[in-house]
Amino acid sequence: MSIRIIVATFLVCLLGSAAAAQPLPRYDLHQLEAAIGKGELGDIAALASTQGGEIVYRKRFDGETPGTPVDIKSAGKSITALAVGMAIMDGKLAGRDVAVWPYLGHSRGEPFDSITVGDLLAMASALDCDDRDGKSPGQEERMYRTREWRAFALDLPARSFSRGENGYGPFSYCTAGVFLLGQVVETATGERFDDYIQRRLFDPLGIARPIWRTSRSGEIQSGGQLTISDEALLKIGRLVLDRGEWDDRQVIDRAWIESMLTPRHRLGEHQFYGDLWWATPLRAGEQYVPAWMMKGNGGNIVAVVPSHDAVLVVQTRNYNKRDAERHAFTALWAMLGALEPVTAPAIAR
Q1: Block means of pLDDT (10 residues each) for the chain, length 349 residues?
Q2: pTM of the model
Q3: Are 180 and 153 in contact, with CB atoms under 8 Å apart?
């Protein structure tokens, strides 16, 4: 499915009427900054936006210098989707339909041996793993209490599982599965996950090495908890908006970007999930426009907005706060409202 078709699908299926959107404050940038200064939006660390690749707004609110890294939590998962695409582009992985267990250890039998790269990307594997259920065997806090996350993830039991008409099982948000994707990339490429990402993604974009969370045994958490700058996130968003191209170099295949941003699950009236990327509309003036997002705990969001040729970044420390995402969307609406739409969005060309 092409990016053009995906965007059109959003306009028809996601947006609906303005009345369907959650009632958020409608601030301009001045009002937004005043609300943040009063503490009305919790602990917002940094906001930034670009249009056409040029920075149009960038401000720090936590007293730190611009560019000071912030832990974006699960928003880092979206970078793992890029890593998988690069490994496929490099000929190290055959594709998203490849079974993961041959890269991870000996056969376990079914349903484990049938789990594919695509299943883990879409949060739709047979692993009994649901971060949003404290009783789930694979819940991420259980993994963090262990020394070796790989052993924990490989030993998870199976859940009741069947594939739907689209070929995927039910959605189940699973950090352990995304960690296993990082392990697959390591085995396939013969490099540590962070080294591979640095060489193939961050270095070409001029991004300094970020801080990856690790297990006590030194495993890289490819499932999120990445401490990185707003400038770096703007560049990553731009790369996706430009379909994998950066400075006239194809860093990631265009076809992979289009596949990655293909909805795999409908999670709500206005929310879809692709390959570790979220799709949620944003308000722009009096209308709603489609956006693909990296999203993490606390309201950490990178939004790619084709209609405005824009990338928006919200970095916060509102971790585990009930209104965190609401506050983040308030900021996104204000930043997007300050921009004019473009005639030919880069991602739809």
Answers
A1: 42 39 84 98 98 97 97 98 98 97 92 97 98 97 98 97 93 98 98 98 98 98 97 98 97 98 94 97 93 98 98 98 96 97 58
A2: 0.92
A3: yes
